[in-house]
Amino acid sequence: MSDDRWLATTLSVGAAVVGAVVAFRRQLAQRAPVAQSLQHQVHVVTGANTGLGFATSRELAKRGASVVMVCRSREKCDAAAGRIRRALAVQRGAVAGSVTTATCDLASRDSIAAFVAEALPAAVPGGAIDALVNNAGLMSGKKFGEDVVDGVDATVRTNHCGPAALTLRVLAAFDVRRCVVVASRLEKRGRVGEVLEGGTPDASAYAVSKQMNLLFARELAKRRPETLTVSCTPGMVNTELGRYHPLFALAAPLRHALLPTPAAGCGSIVHAATAPDLAPGGYYAKATAGGFEAVAPSPDARDDALAARLWDRTAEWNAAGGGGAALFARVPLDGCARGEDL
Q1: Which of 38, 69, 154, 184 is the right S-S partner for 210, CB 3.0 to 4.6 Å?
Q2: Of 81, 80, 74, 73, which is closest to residue 99 (Cα–Cα)?
Q3: Cα 37 to Cα 15: distance, rounded to the nearest angstrom
Q4: pLDDT tens string 152-204
């Protein structure tokens, strides 16, 4: 093959590869919903210092919302809030909102209780929250049951038990209009039924926790009809979610080349937090033709009996060593009474 022909062939293949990568990224990217003003609204976002939580907080604030960014690390949270404030300071057009910060470790019952009793009232003096966005989570790469703390899988503790306890405490103490649970299509591999039967399924702890997220949202929508509860899946996005996975660093070149940024991937979360006329208990994702649509989770994640069983088991898990079962008992099927001492 001549040099000219080799060069032409190489350029053609390279162009085809680049075109395929661009098309793939565009397919995964999500255009945020049509921007409506969120002035005078309060949104609380967990896991807000990085990735989708940061991008969601920034997008909500850009539209005028007052956003409470909740993170485990005060230093990282303040740094992230500073970046958003600098962006808002030079924003043109729509009136920008604001961001405040608060710390909470979702793996700690004491931290959750202190956050709801002290930090959140200071950040939300009016007592009304337009949307609580449960975004925080981790992906360790471990199988379910490999890392157990106080009888509960560590990933499940952080991704499901902690957010569930946080949500119920916030619902009891504040006027919450909407609750958003960020899930994942990987929930289809979760096999929560086996877990509740006492088994140890051959499934990742992350997948189990994400199916639990959907089941919790489904049950909460029934038990707390006055609060709109919805779930969403952002799909594949280049975030730090899997930073504890042993292959995370090795996959960096592929992640950066193929996956959309958090700013391009947070659309489904913003949609779930702001769009009108969403169905209680609905599960939303990016539509193939653009925009967002309700999608069906796995059959297990739609199982009402399984959702009720998980609710009771989660109460037991949260009660171990801490008395957290009262949180769940006070959200009966006929609704939750606000203001009770938890």
Answers
A1: 184
A2: 81
A3: 41
A4: 899 999 999 999 999 999 999 999 999 999 999 989 999 999 999 999 888 88
**Rounded CA separation 145/151 (Å):** 9
Nearest-angstrom CA–CA distance, 85 and 98 = 7
Nearest to 314 by CA among 164, 195, 134: 164
> Quick one: average pLDDT of 12-26?
38
Which domains, ranges and CATH numbers included, belong to the chain?
38-326 (3.40.50.720)
**How would you class 288 by CB atoms within 10 Å of its CB: exposed for 0-12, middle for 13-18, buried for 19 or more?**
exposed
SS3 helix, strand, coil % of the chain, rounded to 5? 45, 15, 40
Cα–Cα dist 32/264, whole Å = 8
Q: How far apart, in whole angstroms, are the C-alpha atoms of residue 100 and residue 65?
A: 11
Q: Residue 37 carries which side chain, given as an amino acid letter?
A: S
pLDDT in tens, 110-132: 999 999 999 999 999 999 999 99
Q: What average pLDDT score do residues 107-111 get?
A: 91
In 150-307, where do the E strands start and end? Answer: 152-153, 175-176, 178-182, 228-232, 283-286, 292-294
Q: Name the packing angle between helices 162-173 and 304-319 (round to 10°).
A: 90
What values do phi and psi take at 125, rounded to 5? -65, -25
* Largest separation between any pair of C-alpha atoms in the chain: 81
More confident residue, 21 or 195: 195
Which has more pLDDT, 340 or 310? 310
CB 120 within 8 A of CB 68: yes
What's the pTM value of the predicted model, to 2 decimals? Answer: 0.82
Under 8 Å between Cβ of 320 and 150: yes
Rounded-to-integer distance, Cα 152 and Cα 199, Å: 13
Q: What are the Cα distances from residue 61, in Å, to 21, 57, 58, 237?
A: 31, 6, 5, 21
Please report the pLDDT score of residue 190 as a whole number.
94
